[in-house]
Design goal:
Radius of gyration: 14 Å
Largest sheet: 4 strands, parallel
Number of strands: 8
Number of domains: 1
Oligomer: single chain
Strand content: 25-35%
Number of helices: 4
Bound molecules: iron/sulfur cluster
Structural class: alpha/beta
């Protein structure tokens, strides 16, 4: 069986940094009765909810920070656990929450040297992993 991978917050899981979900009822209806794999890569990496918002600071080497804390290790742990999971599950496509440092596709918030987060071109860490596996991504805002 092939699964639709979905950012957990899009289907109502309160996994966002501020303790909210990003429920999209139209997506919920579209995927009703379909095989889905709900993933929150930040929770998978062990981050709590709520948590301070984090942004990518650099990509090579990867560094992810909140305003005053380095959370790179949690993001790497989430990515590693996800890679292991994807070895045993077949994914047809992915519906990812836009702009997140994990789930964002084509645009993400990035923290600059001045410690301010801005929307820039680029992909979140989960999106990059899926792209490397040629999995089609739909970004949901
Ligand atoms: S990491 Fe992805 S799934 Fe988790 S709350 Fe953020 S956007 Fe949603």
């Amino acid at each position: 069986m092939r699964y639709h991978l979905v950012s957990a917050c899009l289907l109502g899981i309160k996994s966002r940094y501020d303790g909210s979900s990003a429920l999209r009822t139209s997506l919920l209806k579209r995927l009703k009765d379909k095989p889905i794999l709900l993933i929150c890569p930040e929770k998978l990496g062990g981050l709590p909810t709520p948590r301070p918002p984090a942004q990518i600071v650099s990509r090579s080497p990867l560094q992810v920070k909140t305003r005053n804390k380095d959370v790179t290790a949690a993001f790497l742990r989430g990515a590693d656990r996800l890679m292991k999971l994807l070895k045993s599950v077949s994914i047809s496509d992915a519906y990812l929450k836009s702009r997140s440092p994990s789930c964002g596709y084509r645009k993400v918030y990035q923290r600059g040297p001045d410690n301010i987060a801005r929307l820039v071109k680029g992909n979140g860490i989960l999106a990059e992993l899926l792209m490397a596996k040629s999995i089609k991504i739909k970004s949901i805002s």
